[in-house]
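Incident log entry.

Two folding requests arrived from the same account within the same minute. Monitoring flagged them as a possible duplicate submission, but the sequences differ. Recording both here for audit purposes.

Request one:
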Amino acid sequence: MKELIYLKIIMDILFLIVIGYLIYTFIQTLLKMKGKVILPITNEEVSTIRKYPEKPIEKPTFSNQKLGIILYSILILFVIVMFLLGLWFDLFTWSVYLLLLLPMANSNNLLNMFAIVEDGLLSGNRFISWNKIKSYRFLPIDINHKYYGYSKEANKGYELKIKTIGFPVSCIITSEEMKEKLDKILSEHAKVIEGEM
């Protein structure tokens, strides 16, 4: 019986660490959105970067990302409230912890943005500093690529895959100019060899 109590305490602590980390990364992303954006700046640049093949990104400003910020905040609040209710009514089993984290698993792209800022890059609800980028590469979107066929613009473009400490990020580039700009910035700041994945 004591082992189960200790195990439950350990699971509660681990769950709080995960939620704390998600809140920390979200606040960090919001703070970085206030800083200077290096790329994309113009509407033409914004239209050539996509997180999803069908839809261009939005500018990394609070007004453009308002819906995503509100939805992500509500999702975090919901998970915290459910966790506290579960503690109060002693409802937790292994499956409930996983069920609470399930909505967070697919929430990383609620903010439809990809931007390069002075000290790293913003992708969805994540900020990745330059020193956390291990490598990157551009994959041409051809007939064998998973994004081929979603939109005409994406079919002529590239998928930028960035390997980081943690989970990798990616975006779709629909112009050769943007590919060259991103390649130049990433090679200068990230200190990695292009294509080393």
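Request two (distinct sequence, not a duplicate):
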Amino acid sequence: MLTLEGTLLAPVNRLYILMGKAVRAFLELLVDSAIFIILLLFLHPRIDWPMLGVSIIGLFCLYIIWISVDFIVSGIQLSEEGLASLLSEYVPRVIMFISAVYYPVETLPKILRTLSYANPVYHAVVLFRSAFYLPAKDVNILVSISILLILACIMPFVSVRLFDEIYKKYGIKGY
């Protein structure tokens, strides 16, 4: 029906398309956040409230980073569905593996530990854990929030640029 081509040819900034995608995902995320907040109120854990505020900012930055990466994958999906499904299936698993969500980062081999320190998910996890536990000796909260803020400011523009480049170079195939 050529609606995809019409949408992409419309004189609308790609950043608006990215923001529309982000708002939809954010509304879905609100349900999970509400459940988490309700659990926090009932369980009464020991919480460092200022650190929880910083970690929520960090998680919001991570959300912006992931939406931006998803927009790049959407551009790839327009031209190469197979590659996009491979990326969307396995890359998140690798990122979660090296983000030290389920185990301490010290258990990873040195080369993977270095990749963990470059992973924005790791920094968001460190910030969030710091609201409930004392931060580890080698954790620098300021570095973690700085990395997340910088990436959250840069990634939307990079993703829109890459989306446009992919679309101009390869066009739409398979839709």
